[in-house]
Amino acid sequence: MKTLVIHPKDNSTDFLSHIYKDKDFIVINDNIGNSKKRKLLKEHDRIIMLGHGTKDGLFGHKKFMIDSNDVATLREKEVVAIWCNADEFVKKYGLKGFYSGMFISEIDEAYYEGVYGLTTDEIEKSNNDFAKILGKHLDSKNILEKVKQEYKNDDSSVVIFNSQRLYSSFEND
To answer: Mind giving me the DSSP string for 109-138?
Structure first.
């Protein structure tokens, strides 16, 4: 499967690079412009979109790198969408793939969501574990089940919170 990764440079989401590390994917970290982006989206079977965002799309370089203008092409693809509230974007536009809802990856997000008592180390461990596990299961059938099964820690409120906000719109999940 020909895969494109869109992961805007941002130190706070560097951990997500574990998802595509050592894989033969085209990776976009910089602002490449809309026409080049649209061309690349059309040329790939799977689009992995990672970073910060909202229900309206994926942020990058002080703008949306993925938004409603990309939906027609994305509907024809398998997607992996990991950003805060990607679930609203995926559901609104009827995309197929694996995606997250609100995802705590920083201490301020934990406070905002009312999840207290976490340490930065605990959040970093959760981030790294999640990214490595998702990378391991990218090509698996039942990706949601496999990721949730392995990304589990009943003693970690951040893992519990994040796990409850992972979704799949694949028929076999």
So the answer is: HHHHTT--S--HHHHHHHHHHHHHHHHHHT
List beta partners, residue 66.
Answer: 58
CA distances for 44 relative to 19, 25, 81, 144, angstroms: 17, 10, 15, 22
Residue 26 belongs to domain with CATH number: 3.40.50
Residue 173 lies in a domain: no
Residue 37 tokens read as 């982006």
pLDDT along the chain (173 residues), means of 10: 97 97 97 95 98 97 96 98 98 98 97 96 98 97 96 96 96 64
Tokens of 168: 């799949």
Number of domains in the chain: 1
The residue range of the domain holding 65 is 3-168
Number of residues that this document lists for the chain:
173
